[in-house]
Amino acid sequence: MTEASELVGAVERRLDFLERLAAEPLRKHELVDALGHSRSTVNRAIDELEAAGLVASETDGYRTTLSGRLLATEYCEFLTAADDLAAAGDVLDPLGADVDVDPAVLHEAETYRAAAPDPYRPLEVLDGALADADAVAAALPAFPYPRVAARLRRTAAGGGTVDLALADRAYRHAAERFADDLGAVARREGSRVAAVDAVDAGVVAADGTALLLTFDDGGTLHGAAASTEPEAVEWAERKVRGLIDRGHDTGDALAAMDDAETGETGRDARGGDRSEGEAGDSSAGGDPDATDGRERSAGADGKTGHTGGRLFGGTGSDDTGQSPLSAQGFHAVDEDRLSGEPDPYGPLRATASFPEVDAGYVLDRTAVRDGERRSIAGVLVDGLTEGTDHALVGPPGSGKSTVCRSVAVEWYRSGRGPVTYRPSDGGDPFAATERLRERVTAGDGHHLVVVEDAVDPGAAEAVGLARELADRDDVSFLFDAREEPYDDPDGLPLSPADLRYRREMATVRMPRLDAREVERFVAHVADPGESAAGASGERETSDGTAGRSGDAGPESGLEAAVAEAVREVRNRPPPTADVAALVNLLNVAGVGDVGTLAYALVDGPAGSSGGDPEGGDGDPSPTVDGVRRALDRLVGTALVCSGDEGYRAVHDEWSVLFLERLVEREPAPIVARRVGRAVSRVLALADDPTRRARVRRAVGGDAPTVDRIERDPGAWAAETVRAVYGVGRRYPRLAPLYGRVRYAWIDLPDACPDGLRDRPPEWVARMYVDAGDLDGATAALDAWRPADEAGAAERQRGYGDVARRRGEYDAARERYERAEELFGAAGDRGGLAAAVRGRAQAAHFDGDFEEAYEAASRAYAIAVEVGDPIAEAKALMDVGNALDGLDGTDAVLAHYRVAGDLFRAYDDTHGAANVRANQAVALRRRGDLDAAERTARRSLDGYRTVGDEHREAISLLNLAAVAEQRGAVGEAVARAAEARAIAERVGSELYEAFALSHLGSAAHVAGDLDRAERYLTDALDRLDALGADTRCAMVTAILAEVAIDRGDLGAAERRVDRTASLLDDHAGHKRLAELDRVRGRLALARGDGDAAAAALESAVESARAGGFTQVEAQALATLGAAAARRGDGEAAASRLTAALDLGHRIEAVRAVVAAADELAGLLGESPGGPTATDREAVAEALRESPPERVAAESAADPGAYRALADRWRVDGDGAATYPPLG
Fold first, then answer.
1. Largest Cα span, the chain
2. What CATH number corresponds to the domain at position 1145?
3. Which of 328, 701, 945, 1070 has the most CB within a 10 Å radius?
4. Is residue 718 a part of any domain in this protein?
5. Below-50 pLDDT ranges, the chain
6. Surface-to-core class of residue 981, CB atoms within 10 Å of its CB (0-12 exposed, 13-18 middle, 19+ buried)
């Protein structure tokens, strides 16, 4: 009997024979023709198969036996399965060996990975399968994107059935965030929802398509395999049914949750559980939510808790909510909308209404684009006119809404076409897509649609409509979006197709609203020629800039007004200060309806009666009347009254300054307790229906914000927690508001998702790091007790960042290495990449460029592995930095270029600015000062756009270095002084020391040796205290040159020796070149020409190896002088000519002046100068090969070189304005 292995081997070798003979019997010569084999091969094959019993001889030839046919069929199926598995290998990588997956689901499957260049493709495949499905069976370990629940609800609402099995963790998340959607599914007859212990792999069957979904350890979709083969669909359906049968039925619980929520919010009256078509696209003209306007808007005191109507001024064209579009927030911008009584004072501090925009009372925000200052609204109008949809992105309160309204008004007034506008608090969630499509495509002209807060789930459908209309050149969409959620696509309430379209839209970033812009606005309002406000300009200016009196004192009008407001609220009775702190914090956080949320401070049922009971947190609870009086007191400072429509919050910059002054005036524990108590009471609204009811009563019943909390407490809590802590992350100087972790006062509600609970300590620690408060950061990190290994790893990375900023590079590397171990144990590859990058940066700053290169390369490999393009770009930038320290080849710029392209492709303004800052340094050292300056300015624009003041200072110092190389000492001093002021403001001792060293270097170039020594010595003391050895070496080298110029050669030698000891083994090409150049100067000053020549030749060699052109040019000039001292006129002329030519090309003033002065002296008749023979040798060499910028006939004319030196010489008459020391 033939062994099984032999049978398999025969089938494998002779499969083509078995398949051909299974179809019909053939003789051997016929097989030769049919299969194209030789006669000998056919003979051997038939003999082998016949011996194994797989073929048999019949009268009309050979035929496959039953055993042969069955084995061949099975083997073919095996090969097919092997091919399917090979194709799906990348998708299956995250699954363990024991996961139950049938190969049938992979049969003829198309596979998709969530990785560059198309990371959203798996999501699109899943969304496409669910979008219009009549029946869905799904088992999910996590929700791959937020709209999955809405897709399942649509299937159920359309009459289809849904079988859904969720892993326990996914179920808890869904019950918090998607209770209404899943409740609607659970109530559908024939649908089932179950929770199970675990779902190893996602499985979906939807209308004839089967999907296998794999997820990484963090719950992110890793890949998908899609098959339409019947056996694949059958297996998927069977798999889901089995999980549901074994799981816990949650249908009744979900339905009950949805019923309870519907009962609280009155959603049954608004049709909250209708199908999507009924929600807004039905033909019914009425609005089921329409009620008497006075009843809806009036609160207990005649004020409302929302401000949407006021933004549009008059209401003549409002159809009182009688159409779906109006009910869902969309209104036409027309004459009626622009009518009303504009308040010339409101826009000074608050978001402007449409009438105020139309009246010209708003500041035209500007930003530098490619070196030119332009109106942001103008940039948007130009792009939208070309038919390109745009997103205006920025932090909450940065002025996005005002810019959007300015665009809308300009569009309408210019006659380009109609405008349809939806404000951020526009009304019911938008679903009337067909109505909006009809409106924007049916009219005349180019229709502009503006949607504020596009990242809100209630507005998300508009992005889908923009995508569908993208090919039309007569419709354009402008979206405004909060920066943090917009930059985190995994959390956006968009379909995968819309996420892809988000990347295709043009993105414009809001620049930081700084005091200068606010002062521009004050000047605009106060100018009688600009607006009607001019008649009351004095009143308006004093209102906006109280305390300002010409130039009396360094405090601006805005700062004085804010300081006075802080003093005022602290002197008022409680709860004024608490309300002020809460209102301003929520304003910066972008949490709307602050007038309503302030009543959350009322913490007990008796609070409305005038008593002062103890609140739930042990602190006295204010009364409703007390909060109302506090809000009224804040009008004109933290709030702007909008007549019958309640309150509008002030500008973000005003609130930031208010909070900063509060932090300055109150001890840190007290201000943290005040803020923590207030924020905790607001967040408690997510848990407590009684608190929500209390707030409703306080505002008279109509509270859209409370409605939103009740619809989805978990989502609101998560968004608000992120927003509140986001304030400190954007403005790190406000870190004391959040305590030191050890005495944090903000209590998270039970509704807050588990994934956020361990984040606040991490965020607070990062605030202190970014603020430069390294002691505060250390205290926060010491007090943090992470709940898991990933948190422990992040804590170690934080310690590494602190040590790196202190200049303690060895300690930093140890911390980063520990973080790497912990991230690896936690399976957090993204965190691992960040820790490895941190180690690379610490090594780079320590001068260990080889380790920096190795670590950065490893970080890049990890980033590629996890498919994170931003991490790839960061690692590539670090690789470029390391290469810049090692060899300075063109590979440096190539790495920067690729990194920059990645940052820009993924709309990372900060990352792009980082690359440009590094590019500017590389370009300057190569001598391309025009490109370096242009690139440094663009990096400066980027940092100012995102508000990174630390790196803004670095960009200013890059520009100072460019100016100094050109000899523009005044500009260099001004740039360095501005950088120093920023460093002082943000509390960065390291950057302040850098700025001082630049000021000292500029003074040295100008010949002001005393001033140079003072600045450089101060910088050295600060760097020494920080332990930044390589930076100390840079400063001591300049101090050594100052001593040489003074003639104090003993001091110069001591400083040279210290420079060498500081550099130790970490000297790159630049530092070696600079050290050898100074050694050469010192040797030349001592009269040792040979030692000088040796050191200077080494300097030139190192400078050329690293591409440090300025050091090379200066070393060549000194080398020429050394050759002259040794009597080698020809060598002197050659070196000095090279210095002149290179110095001209790279605009290196010191090199040009030194070389020209030396040549003028060599060719002149000065006493003690060179002999006639020497002079003639120099002249002859110059005639044979004159400098590029000197005419051939003047090549031996000393006057030509004196004139050249005078033309380039720095004017040292003290025109530059140096800041004082201390």
1. 123
2. 1.25.40.10
3. 328
4. yes
5. 1, 260-322, 515, 525-526, 528-556, 606-618, 640-645, 648-649, 1167-1168, 1171-1173, 1213
6. middle
E runs forming strands in 148-220: 161-167, 192-196, 202-206, 209-215
The reply to whether 99 and 83 lie within a common domain is: no
* DSSP line for 911-948: HHHHHHHHHHHHHHHTT-HHHHHHHHHHHHHHHHHHT-
983-1005: pLDDT as tens digits = 887 767 888 899 999 999 999 99
* CATH code for position 44: 1.10.10.10
Residue type for 30, please?
E
Q: Strand (E) positions, 44-174?
A: 55-58, 61-64, 110-113, 135-140, 161-167
Q: Mean of the per-residue pLDDT values for the chain? A: 78
Residue 24 DSSP one-character state: S
Q: For the segment 391-435, what is each residue's pLDDT rounded down to a tens digit?
A: 998 876 677 888 999 999 999 888 889 999 998 765 667 877 888
pTM: predicted TM-score of the whole model, two decimal places: 0.58
d(CA 929, CA 926): 8
CATH (domain of 214): 3.30.870.10
Asked if residues 345 and 334 have their Cβ atoms less than 8 Å apart, the reply is: no
CB contact set of 877 (below 8 Å; sequence gap of 6+): 895, 896, 899, 911, 914, 915, 918
Q: Which of 752, 775, 791 is the last residue of a domain?
A: 752
What CATH number corresponds to the domain at position 418? 3.40.50.300
For residue 237, what pLDDT is reported?
92
Q: Which of 705, 687, 728, 785 is nearest to 695 (CA)?
A: 705
Residue found under tokens 């590979």: 891
Tell me, yes or no, whether 808 lies in a domain.
no
At 95-109, the pLDDT tens digits run 777 778 887 777 777
Closest by Cα among 67, 60, 91 to 1: 67
CA distance 70 to 348: 85
Q: Same domain, yes or no, for 636 and 720?
A: yes
Q: Which domain holds residue 159?
A: 90-270
Location of structure tokens 């200049």: 807
Of the residues 33, 54, 87, which one is the last residue of a structural domain? 87
Q: How far apart are CA 83 and CA 76, in angstroms?
A: 11
Do 1024 and 1032 form a contact (C-beta atoms < 8 A)?
A: yes
